[in-house]
């Protein structure tokens, strides 16, 4: 019945629930892949896009890397969706194939954008910027990028857009052991982050700049939380981090990007040691 209806209903064929069903029915074939990619630009950034999550689940597709790359970079697909390759396909491409030359070029272009004078910059969207940055950046640059991005989202009105920050970061940590090690090193030395990367560099918030002594504590909490959500924070390390942070000044306030909860560090950190 569903197949019959889909033959004559173009709107149904673009429905996210239909696409997820069709993927299971067709074992993740090329036709469904093209249909999922064509949805780029149709979902608002703050809304859950399960089709995009499914697209980025590389192992669930019965399609070769060559075909996958071809579909993601076809200009016709970008035109159909009303978006641009960079805002849709390229952001996904960078997460799926981070070592590919196209992904590396996208990352270099991102660095150039942030080092260019503001009046010379074209528009960029946060979701593609963070997807490319977290997907392709060298592992040792990830903690600094995460801290910078978190500062911008914490002191903004974009609370509904937090998945743009958390999802690509979690994808990277769950597939890259070197990224996990970089965050573990940053957890033990939050004041010694590598800051050479120009992406999101510079001062954005006067309050944060006025209380630099709180940054190591806030960063340590953030890095521990990120590792915890990635399933990479052993109980012993979580307990030690809790021991160090629980004695922090009650004036130290932290923000949880996974729940959008903000409160005293001495209380928030207790969740790290909970089983």
Report on this structure.
A two-stranded antiparallel ribbon has the order 1-2. It is built from 18 helices and two strands. It has helices at residues 2-8, 10-13, 16-25, 30-37, 50-55, 65-72, 75-81, 89-96, 101-115, 126-136, 142-154, 163-175, 177-188, 206-210, 215-229, 235-245, 265-268, 270-273, and strands at 253-256, 261-264. The protein folds into two domains: 1-136, no CATH class; 137-275, no CATH class. α9 (101-115) crosses α10 and α12 crosses α13 (177-188). Residues 75-84 have low confidence and may be disordered.
Record field, number of beta strands: 2
Distance between the termini: 46 Å
**Coarse morphology:** globular
Order of helices and strands: HHHHHHHHHHHHHHHHEEHH
Report the portion of residues in β strands. Answer: under 5%
Total helix count? 18
Helix % is 55-70%
What is the arithmetic mean of pLDDT? 85
Number of domain modules: 2
Largest sheet report: 2 strands, antiparallel
Structural class computed from helices and strand pairing? mainly alpha
The low-pLDDT segments are 75-84
As laid out across the biggest beta sheet, the strand order is 1-2
What are the key terms here?
single chain; 275 residues; mainly alpha; 18 helices; 2 strands
Give a topology summary.
Elements: H1 2-8, H2 10-13, H3 16-25, H4 30-37, H5 50-55, H6 65-72, H7 75-81, H8 89-96, H9 101-115, H10 126-136, H11 142-154, H12 163-175, H13 177-188, H14 206-210, H15 215-229, H16 235-245, E1 253-256, E2 261-264, H17 265-268, H18 270-273
Helix pairs in contact: 3-4, 4-6, 8-9, 8-10, 9-10, 10-12, 12-13, 13-15
């Amino acid at each position: 019945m569903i197949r019959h209806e889909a033959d004559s209903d173009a709107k149904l064929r673009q429905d996210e629930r239909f696409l997820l069903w069709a993927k299971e029915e067709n074992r993740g074939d090329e036709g469904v892949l093209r249909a999922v990619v064509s949805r780029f630009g149709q979902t608002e950034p703050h809304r859950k896009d399960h089709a995009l999550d499914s697209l980025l689940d590389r192992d669930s597709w019965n399609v070769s890397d060559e075909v996958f790359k071809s579909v993601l970079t076809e200009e016709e697909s970008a035109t159909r969706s009303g978006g641009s390759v960079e805002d849709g396909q390229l952001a996904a491409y960078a997460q799926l194939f981070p070592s590919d030359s196209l992904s590396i070029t996208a990352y270099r272009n991102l660095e150039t954008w942030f080092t260019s004078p503001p009046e010379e910059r074209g528009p960029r969207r946060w979701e593609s910027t963070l997807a490319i940055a977290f997907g392709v950046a060298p592992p040792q640059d990830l903690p600094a990028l995460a801290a910078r991005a978190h500062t911008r989202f914490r002191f903004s009105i974009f609370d509904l857009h937090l998945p743009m920050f958390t999802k690509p970061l979690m994808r990277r940590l769950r597939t890259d052991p070197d990224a996990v090690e970089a965050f573990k090193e940053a957890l033990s030395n939050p004041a010694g982050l590598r800051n050479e990367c120009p992406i999101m560099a510079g001062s954005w918030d006067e309050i944060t700049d006025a209380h630099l002594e709180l940054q190591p504590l806030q960063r340590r909490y953030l890095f521990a939380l990120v590792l915890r959500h990635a399933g990479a924070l052993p109980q012993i390390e979580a307990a030690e981090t809790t021991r160090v942070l629980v004695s922090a000044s009650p004036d130290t306030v932290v923000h949880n990007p996974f729940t959008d909860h903000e409160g005293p560090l001495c209380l928030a950190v207790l969740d790290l040691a909970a089983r």
